[in-house]
Amino acid sequence: MAELRVEGLVKTFGEVRAVDDVSFRVADGEFLTLLGPSGCGKSTTLAAIAGLDRPDQGLIALGGNVFFDGTKRRFVPPEGREIGLVFQSYALWPHMTVWNNLDFPLKLRKIPRAERAKRIEEVLALVEMSEYGARYPHALSGGQQQRVALARTLVYRPSLLLLDEPLSNLDAKLRERARTWLRHLQNQVGVTTVYVTHDQSEALALSDRVAVMNQGKIVQLADPHTIYEHPADPFVADFIGSSNFFRGTVTGIANGSVRIAIGDGQPLVAASPLRLRDGSKVTVSVRPEKIYLSDSPQANGSDATNVFPVRIEERTYLGAHHTVLVRVGNDSFRVDCDTLPAGETAFAHIPPESCIVFQAQTDR
């Protein structure tokens, strides 16, 4: 196992800069996820690491092995990288049994028969598929096919594991179970892993760190808690989880708190480390679960800070909680709550420490 280094990676398709100066490192045994919307460059980055796409610029190295160096015009083809790759489509050979699917890549590497059998037995046990060696892929469920695809990759003991949306073909319940199983498996094997997904829940549940990508760039690289609680910009706040956004103007600053006029001039107080000034244009993000509704402005012992009388416009029952759309003045926002207020009006309480303030681009 070894550290993966990606430095200054650039890949263009015509006029489109699909990967734009992307740099990151993945420590030995670490699980890093590239997360972002379709077309953000995450799969192109993964393809470059695998050697399936040749970048225009940059450096890709695993430990002391340099796979690509744009300056020295060095490019190692996929078969020379000893990388394991699992796609969204599992690409199992339909005419081969599970055992033979795993045996084939070992034969290509000229591994002796006894060693091949030993490895196949080990990896089938690892993915909990020991009883399925004689079956063909068409006789397996989607979840079982996914395990076989992963086993086929692990059986030749790659130094780096690349996973391109491997759970996206599974239904929601099976995908949730597969996440837990996959993370446990990666911890057992200890292989350095780069995972690609557009599913924020997957990224938060699986990863040691998450690289959020947008328009070919990494906009934030951090652990899941930091990504969720301290997003770098409004894009990350909006893409990871749900967020309400309020645009406003700073009207006062004191003791680490910012007073902001939002909507029709309603005052919102936010705790913020940013260096702002009166008149600064800002955007404030607040997670729906950080707001609470009550029938009284003094509920839960709170003071009058950030307490807004609101009208309830829409209620959505989601099983574990309700999502409520409320309106104050010209602004509407969503609140996640366990119990619903009794009437059509209520009070929304927004803790200042739950407000994330972003300075407007034009005001920087």
Describe the structure.
- The protein folds into 2 domains: 4-238, 3-Layer(aba) Sandwich (Rossmann fold), CATH 3.40.50; 242-359, RNA polymerase II/Efflux pump adaptor protein, barrel-sandwich hybrid domain (OB fold (Dihydrolipoamide Acetyltransferase, E2P), Beta Barrel), CATH 2.40.50.
- With 364 residues, it is of the alpha+beta class.
- It starts with a strand and ends in a 5-residue tail after the last strand.
- The chain is built from 8 helices and 21 strands.
- It has helices at residues 42-50, 98-108, 113-126, 142-154, 172-189, 200-206, 224-229, 234-239; strands at 4-13, 16-26, 31-35, 57-62, 65-69, 74-75, 83-86, 160-164, 192-197, 209-214, 217-222, 244-254, 257-262, 266-271, 281-286, 292-294, 307-317, 322-328, 331-337, 345-349, 356-359.
- The strands form 4 sheets. Strands 7-8-9-3-10-11 form a 6-stranded mixed beta sheet, sandwiched between helices.
- It is elongated, with a radius of gyration of 25 Å.
Question: What descriptors fit this protein?
Answer:
364 residues; Rossmann fold; OB fold (Dihydrolipoamide Acetyltransferase, E2P); 2 domains; six-stranded mixed beta sheet; five-stranded antiparallel beta sheet; 36% strand
Could you provide a short overview of the structure?
The chain has about 375 residues and is an alpha+beta fold. It contains 8 helices and 21 strands. Strand 1 and strand 2 form a beta hairpin.
